[in-house]
Specification:
single chain, 143 residues, mainly beta, Immunoglobulin-like, seven-stranded mixed beta sheet, three-stranded antiparallel beta sheet, 1 helix, globular
Length: 143
């Protein structure tokens, strides 16, 4: 029993203190300065689900990010999930996250998930300069 408790404590320390990437919050593409960590694509969610979206960002490259969704593929159009930017502290590389409740996006950017669901792409990008971006592969949204 004691071994199991120690094992669980070690796992908790790894996940919550160091993170699954060993605490490294450096985006994979340093020039882009942003990397979508989750969801990356292949996941299935239901309308009404709370999805913990996470990303890595270089705070020296942007002061705000936007989370955007497209139901028509990577060429867009893209709709801002929240209708505003998410502030990024200006302190180098950061791991950030927020919750996206599917189906409760910003009212002016209504997203039609269809009667039986659809596939979407998620983008995290600079709010001002959305050329700095990373995008997911297809994510399935069911009704």
């Amino acid at each position: 029993m004691m071994r199991l408790m120690v094992f669980c404590l070690l796992i908790c320390f790894y996940l919550f203190c160091k993170g699954p990437n060993g605490g490294d919050c450096t985006p994979a593409d340093a020039d882009m300065g942003i990397e979508l960590v989750f969801p990356r694509g292949g996941e299935t969610f239901t309308v009404g689900s709370n999805v913990a979206v996470s990303w890595k960002v270089d705070g020296t490259k942007m002061s705000q990010v936007a989370l955007m969704v497209s139901t028509t593929g990577l060429s867009g159009p893209w709709r801002n999930i929240f209708g505003h930017g998410i502030d990024v502290p200006q302190s180098g590389n950061l791991c950030m996250d927020t919750v996206w409740t599917i189906g409760q996006e910003y009212e002016k950017n209504y997203i039609d998930y269809g009667p039986s669901g659809t596939t979407v792409h998620l983008r995290v990008c600079g709010y001002i300069n959305n050329d700095l971006k990373d995008e997911s592969s297809m994510i399935t949204v069911q009704r």
